[in-house]
Amino acid sequence: MQRILAKALSARISIFPRAVTQSKFSTLVNTVGEDDTVLPKMPPFDYTPPPYTGPSADEIIKKRKAFLSPSIFHFYDDPLNLVDGKMQYLFDDRGRRYLDAFGGIATVYCGHCHPEVVDAIVSQTKRLQHSTILYLNHAIADFAEALASKLPGDLKVVFFTNSGTEANELALLMARLYTSCHDVISIRNGYHGNAAGTMGATAQSSYKFNVVQTGVHHAQNPDQYRGIFGSDGLKYARDVDDMITYGTSGRVAAFIAEAIQGVGGIMELAPGYLPAVYSTIRKAGGLCIADEVQSGFARTGSHFWGFEAHGVVPDIVTMAKGIGNGIPLGAVVTTPAIAKVLTQRSYFNTFGGNPVCTAAGHAVLKVIDRENLQQNAFNVGLHLKQRLNSLKEKYEIIGDVRGRGLMLGMELVTDRQLKTPAKAETVHVMDQMKEMGVLIGKGGFFGNVFRITPPLCFTKDDADFLVDVMDYTMSKM
Prior knowledge:
The chain is an alpha/beta fold. It has 15 helices and 18 strands.
């Protein structure tokens, strides 16, 4: 039986019937390994999902191919059919439990189906699902007030959107209107969305179509791992000054950046970079936009917003993902003076500020505060990063471990000196970890960085299980 189980794991197939529960499966995989070693055991969890009676994975794949965009792809050779979620765990159509260390691409913060967030959504839906901001409703006003209280300085005017792309589009529009300039500076390797303006600001070729994208200049990425200046943020910042001097009229509309590049591979900007660039941009008449779509809402642990770790205060802050714990919701927060530019014409968003979405967002803020999720992200993230660094000492394939809180990245390379991306190995480890019950993401320009962005209710036991599974998987390569 031990050999059969080991072969099933390595071949990425299941020998268990649909009725086998995850608790039983955990006991089995904890018993044996390929060489009779004890496999890591998933932490216990008191929840059993209801039986699934829907279509199979094969049927869903057929429908996706027939009716959805061919641009849509899925992880894994044997894709997961996820049908249930509870806090930091997900369940497939067979009832098998997985530790979610990806959080729906850094989106689930409070935990899957957190009862207080669900209650807020259901209660508001029963009472009023949608009206319009042309009428009064307390949900949008209450959430805007609560959200503004989380931001520094004069950042207190909120515009609600449906996504991060839409939020960044609006932020760029406002900056251009306010400054009467068109030129924008963003950072290479950054990702800000896939609409007209945000695609221009995005600086990764794999996300840019061959359409007109004007007025955006891409500065050197202050990449502490691969960058030419290492961790010297001031040297990278000089490139922005040169761009303004030689590539613009001397005036710019805005600078937009993530404090930690998410899609770009959990790349934290070099120390000293943002303060220097913010100063340069403001001297050129521009506004500073902080893209907090992935790093905001306490994910970094040390601060509520990613930009706070750099000691700067932006003029505009954009956010999405964690703001709604999975509900389609985004926001732009700025100052009263900048916000006023939209009164020059009629700006309207049908679903921005929808009562159901804003009720969910308000509930998320309350849960983050009451359950001390920021402190948990700091404590568990510190523990997890230390353990990941211990793996780096053990395996040459790990080139870098980076990030903060529960926004961590691990870059795999085939050669530490040349930093050659280990693309195939990254996919292999992800696939094997999935078979052992752990889901992580991947990113970076070369697709060789593990993105570890779990729900903020992640525990130290969860972190230990993740690292133990990763350790076991790498030991078999």
